[in-house]
Structures are given as structure tokens and as C-alpha cells.
Amino acid sequence: MKTDEQLKELVKQKYGEIALQDKETNAASCCGSGGCSTDVYNIMNEDYTKLEGYNADADLGLGCGLPTQFAKIKKGDVVIDLGSGAGNDAFIARTEAGETGKVIGIDFTPAMIDKARINAEKLSFHNVEFRQGDIENMPVTANVADVIVSNCVLNLVPNKAGVFKDIYRVLKPGGHFSISDVVLAGDLPENLKSAAEMYAGCVSGAIQKDEYLKLIDTTGFKNVVLQKEKAITIPDDILKDYLNEAEIAAFKASGTGVYSITVYAEKPLETAEACCAPGCCN
Hints:
By secondary structure, the protein is an alpha/beta fold. The protein has helices at 4-19, 23-26, 67-70, 88-97, 110-123, 160-170, 190-193, 196-200, 209-219, 236-239, 245-253; strands spanning 78-82, 102-107, 128-132, 145-151, 171-185, 222-232, 257-266. The protein contains 11 helices and 7 strands.
């Protein structure tokens, strides 16, 4: 098993390569929407093209949901997009936040940051910026964001608890997040869990759905809502690269499920720590 730092470097390298490709090329990659499959369908990615603010140059086909659609972004909001890639979700969030809002995209991969900045400049978006950084330790001060969104990124981070703690730090009291991610119900076969390509492809880095939701709860978030859930089928022509026929049959019979979920939660409003006068706090 690779260390956390080795996994991070794997992700940085793989997504650096993807940043230099177009969507059609990415669709032929385990990290892209086509998931290496020769079947003509996308195993994870959702259709963004009908959402206001969509920009084809920023869509690399890497998501697993539509978190901005569920994020309840209002005009004037400060929105942070975790794992912003080429800027797709950030630009759609900007449409929701309007000219008086602000969107900050954070990504670990320098090539993705470069691509997103070029896209923003071409679109003349002056209230969208992209910062390189680790989403476990965001380059953002505390209590700054009204809304945080993320699309199929936390499964790529070994320390998911650290990410949720930093989301809590960065959200304003009363702020909320809407995150799309990949989770499991049951255990993946060992050959899938240990495959670097399946990790970068957003499958083997996923954790159990119940564990994922518990992390949100134990971090201190309230009003946790599962906004959407969709089963993901891994086609046989992906599985056969890692499993033999008997192992594929056993995997399918095991009941193990891979799911895309979109989950919403709120950071509670802070309570007063001191009374204004003796006897006012009963």
C-alpha cells in the first residue's frame, strides 16, 4: 500500500497529464468520464451542458455529480470549489453567485490551475480566482465561505477527515457545503483496491458510505442531507484489467456497490461564549 504522500504525488502526476488533454482523450482514461470502457456511456460523469455558466473548455469530464445544482448558492455568496480542475464547477457557481459574489477554486495540480486561469481570463471573469493548495489545509482564512462545493475529489485524498475539518474551519457559521463524491457499500477486491489507476480513477480511494457520512457528523456539521445517490457500474472491460473471470463473477455476486452521492451539510451558527450581564444565561 502506498503512503499518503505517494498517493498525493500519484494524483498530482495523473491529473497533470489530464490537464494537458481534451475531454475526448480523457474519456478514454480511467480518470475520465469514459472510465477506460469501450462501452459508449460514461460511468460517472453527469451532463453539465444544460447548466447556465457551462464552458466546454473547462469541462474535462472528471466529475461524478452536479453539486452546484444542489448547493443553494445565492447572489453575493463567497463560494469555494475544492479540486476545481479546469474551472467547470467554479464557472457555474459564479453564475449563481453573480457579479457581487466571489468564487475561489483550489486545486493540488499546477497544470490544472494554469488551465483554469487561462479559461477565466478568456471569459473575463474577474470575481473568480484559482489557488494552488492542499484541500486538507486550504490557502484560505477561516470563516470566509458561504458555500463550499466539490465534485469527485475527496475520494482522491487519503486523509478525508482532515478535509472535512478544514471545510468546517473555512465555512462561515451558518454556511454549508454540497459535495459530490464516490463511496462504497461493501469491500472492493484486493486487486482493485491496490491498483494505482483505479485510485486515480476515483474508485479504490473511496470509503464506505456510512463511514463517509459519519465523518461529516463527527466533524460537527448539522442538517446532513443526502441530496442524490446513483449506482455506478464498472464495466467488464475495466474489471478484466485487474480481475480474472472468476474474480469478476465473485465481485458481482458479492453485492458490493459503488455509488456517486451528493451530500449537503451546514456549519452551525456559533453560540455566545459570554453573557452580557449576570444572570442572562440560564
